[in-house]
Amino acid sequence: MKIIIVGAGEVGFNIARKLSKENQNVVVIDKDPHKIKRITEELDVMALLGGGTSPQVFRDAGIGEEGMLVAVTDSDEVNLIACLMAKNLSPSLLKIARIRNPEYLNEKEIFRQDLLGIDRVISPESEMVEGILNIMSVPGASEVIDFAEGRVKLIGIAVRKDCPFVEKDLAAIRELDEKILVGAICRGEQVLIPRGDDVIQANDLVYVVVRKDDVDRIIRRFNPQQRVLRRIIIVGAGQAGTALATHLDHSRVKTVIIEKDADKCLQLAENLDKVIVIKGDGTDKDLLLEENVHDADFLVAVTGDEETNILISLLAKGLGADKTITRVSKLSYIPLVSALGIDTVVSTRLSAVRAILQYIRRGKIISVAPLKGEHAEAIEAEALETSDIVNVPLSEMRFPKGAIVGAIVRNGDIIIANGGSIIRPKDRLIIFALKTVIPKLEKLLTVKLEFF
């Protein structure tokens, strides 16, 4: 399958980088010679200098009936026209467009298949805001990812020194609570897909598969002192900050939003009922002290400047804020920022990469979530009836080391997997896998169980 990517910015580059490491047939198109040079120097993919709306450039890229077009330039208009051109050149090609303008997103009619030929619309800002709200819905988590329409959650939990599970192996933890399944452990820059004899250490970030109804109880098993969400401070009233404030305006959570632009403050004050709007600078220590940042459950820094967001979050942590959520644009910054002690990093570009990945994988993929800077993935997939691994206990499967089945969803029931669990046809599976073993999984499973 050929994948044509229009746009070699951060999103396009990172999608191409990920796919090139998996030996996918990728072509990247961009009109900026510097971006094309970067692609050719750093990635093993085909790169074409040209406009993403040019029929001839698409022909040069080898556009055909089989494959996919991913339009992720910084221009919504270019992305829309690219899909329209691809529709006329190759009607059956799967076409995905990144759209950021809320006005376009509100006009759902223009995205009809018979009009512009777009199969999937990705809105990175909306994806990121939804991710932030997911984290806020589970105050003890640093990351929350939904599977099975939200019935199963993957929760990233930072292990504190006083956690009762510190220095206990996973087998012992399962004996204490059989509903706890740790699918991945992040320790520094290392990501482990654990076995029963792996031991949890203080400062680990553990990813736990949890039924929706068990979330609060499991969080409190890891952190008995976890308090209920009461107060949030948002810094930045751009599209993301405004969307968050609007959502929280209908909740019981006390919310403050800080913005430097007087016009934006006035508009927010007119549209919001409960949220307190303050004109000010989020990097002002005195202002944060005045707003009792030490009593905030979350400080969310989502201004348009990532350096400012990092500074605000570090300042807030120093002043006693319980948790910070920090918007960062450059994906290469994410591991560096995490090392500084910032709790949770969000990115519209990472949200776009995550959303697009599920359509690029072959077979019965429902969703894909990269973990810890893409060192590992959590994959939701459907088990096919012809697979060799259906009707067999998990303990007898020949999964490569570095991959594990975390949960099975069957007829609405959630089964937290163990060695005796048996996969049935049509089951949904939540699989954790290190990036390095994904090709092995593909080789092992593609023929009969097309996870990828």
Write the layout of secondary structure elements.
Blueprint (H helix, E strand, L loop, with lengths): L1 E5 L3 H11 L4 E6 L2 H10 L3 E4 L5 H6 L6 E5 L4 H14 L4 E5 L3 H5 L13 E3 L1 H14 L5 E5 L4 E7 L11 H7 L4 E7 L2 E3 L12 E7 L3 H8 L8 E5 L3 H10 L5 E6 L2 H10 L4 E4 L5 H6 L7 E4 L4 H13 L4 E5 L6 H6 L4 E3 L1 H13 L4 E7 L4 E7 L20 E8 L2 E4 L11 E7 L3 H8 L7
Helix pairs in contact: 1-14, 6-9, 6-14
Discrete helix count: 15
Query: How are the strands of the largest sheet arranged?
Result: 3-2-1-4-5-6
Helix/sheet category: alpha/beta
How many strands, what sense, and barrel or not for the largest sheet?
6 strands, parallel
State the name of the first-level CATH class of the largest domain.
Alpha Beta
Shape: globular
Write down the CATH topology of the largest domain. Rossmann fold
How far apart lie the N and C ends? 13 Å
Uncertain runs with pLDDT below 50, 5 residues or more?
447-452
Helix content: 25-40%
Radius of gyration: 23 Å
Tally the beta strands: 22
Average pLDDT taken over every residue: 86
> What percentage of the residues does DSSP assign to strands (E)?
25-35%
CATH architectural category of the largest domain: 3-Layer(aba) Sandwich
Count of discrete structural domains: 4
CATH superfamily of the largest domain: NAD(P)-binding Rossmann-like Domain
Description:
It is built from 15 helices and 22 strands. Helix content is 31%, strand content 26%. By secondary structure, the protein is α/β, with parallel strands linked by helices. Residues 447-452 have low confidence and may be disordered. It has helices spanning 10-20, 33-42, 55-60, 76-89, 102-106, 124-137, 170-176, 215-222, 239-248, 262-271, 285-290, 306-318, 334-339, 348-360, 438-445, and strands spanning 2-6, 25-30, 46-49, 67-71, 94-98, 120-122, 143-147, 152-158, 181-187, 190-192, 205-211, 231-235, 254-259, 276-279, 298-301, 323-327, 344-346, 365-371, 376-382, 403-410, 413-416, 428-434. The chain folds into four domains: 2-122, Rossmann fold (3-Layer(aba) Sandwich); 128-222, 2-Layer Sandwich (Alpha-Beta Plaits); 231-351, NAD(P)-binding Rossmann-like Domain (Rossmann fold); 357-445, Alpha-Beta Plaits (2-Layer Sandwich), CATH 3.30.70.1450. The strands form four sheets. It has a six-stranded parallel β-sheet with strand order 3-2-1-4-5-6, sandwiched between helices. The chain is globular, with a radius of gyration of 23 Å.
